[in-house]
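Task card 7
Instruction: Convert sequence to C-alpha cells.
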Amino acid sequence: MNFGLSEEQELIRDSFSGTLERVCQLDTVRKTAEVSAPMDESIWTELCSLGMAGLLIPEEFGGTGLTLLEVAVVSEELGRRAAPVPFAGGVVMAPLAIRLGGDDNQKREWLPAMADGSLRVGVAVSEAAAGARENAGVTAGNGLLSGRALFVLDGAEAGGYVVADNAGGLHILHANASGLNKIALKTIDRTRAVMELRFENTPAEPLRNSSDVLQTIIDAGRVSLAADSLGVGEEMLRQSVEYSADRNQFGRTISSFQAVKHLCAEMAAELQPCRGLVWHAAYVIDQSPKELSLAAAFAKSHMDEVGRFVARTATEVHGGMGFTDLTGLHYWFKRLGVNRAYLGSPERVRAEAARLQGFTA
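Output:
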C-alpha cells in the first residue's frame, strides 16, 4: 500500500508553497518579527484567498470542508517559510471546537466570518494541554469566567476566544466581553504571537460535549504543530546543505568534509520517518478517531525531539554564521523550540501516551 498524498492534496501543497515563496521571504519574516504582536496581514490575506482560514470549516458555512491531513500539508509549508500568521489555534483548533461543540446558532454566528479570514479566534487551552503554572487557570460558573489563561495561541488581534476551564469545559466569547483583559506575551519565537487573558466575571457561552471536544482540539493542535516542526526541520536541513556547498575552507567547500556530510545525513535520516507519523496522526481523526490521541502524542513528542536535534545540528553546520541574523537561521531554530513547549512538552505528551496504552496509572 502506498500511503501518500492524493493529486488534490499535492495541488494544495504546491499552491501554498508557491504563494509562500512569493510573499514570505526572509526579509518579510525579519520585519514582522520586530513588531510587538507578530502578524503579517498581507500574507494572511494571500493565504486566505487560497482557502486557508476555512480548511476545517464545513462548506455550508463558507469553508472548504477538508480534513486534518490537508491541514498537516499546509502547516508543513508554513513552517518551512516560518510564516508569521495564525494557524494552529485560529485555523485548526478554534474552528474545530465550534464545529464539534457549537450549537446551530453558534456555528452560524462564528464560522462564516472565520472561513473567509475576516474573524480570527484565539485558543486558550494551554493549562489543559501543558499543565497549569504561575497560578494560572480559569474557573466557570453561571455563565461567567474568572482567572487567567497563559500562552493563548493566535490571540493577537483576535475577535474572539475559545477558552478551557479547570474542569475541562469549553467556552466561547467575544474579544470585547466585559471583564476581559488581554496582555501580549513575548517568547523567543518572534514569528507568532501569544497572549495572556485575564477574566473577571467575564460572560461566555459554553460549548457542548466540552471534555471530548477539548481533547480532540488539543490532539489536532499537536498534529498541526508537529507538521509545522517537520517543515521547519526540512528547511533547516536544506539551508545547511546549501550553505555547506557554498562555504569554502582550506581551499574546498565544507560539503566535501566527511564530518559535515555525516551531520547532514543524520538530519535527513531523523526527519524522514517523522512524515509518516504526522500523516498517520492527521489521517486517523476521520478514519479511526479513537486512535487520534495516541497518534498525535507519538507525532508531536517524536517530532519535538527530532526538531531539537536538527536545530542544534544545522547550527553546527553553519558554524559561527548560524548565530548571526544574516542567515536568519535563528527564526527556524526558535520556532522549533517554542513548538516543543506548546500544547505539552515531549516528556508530558509521552507520559500521556503511556497512560493511553496502560503502561502507567
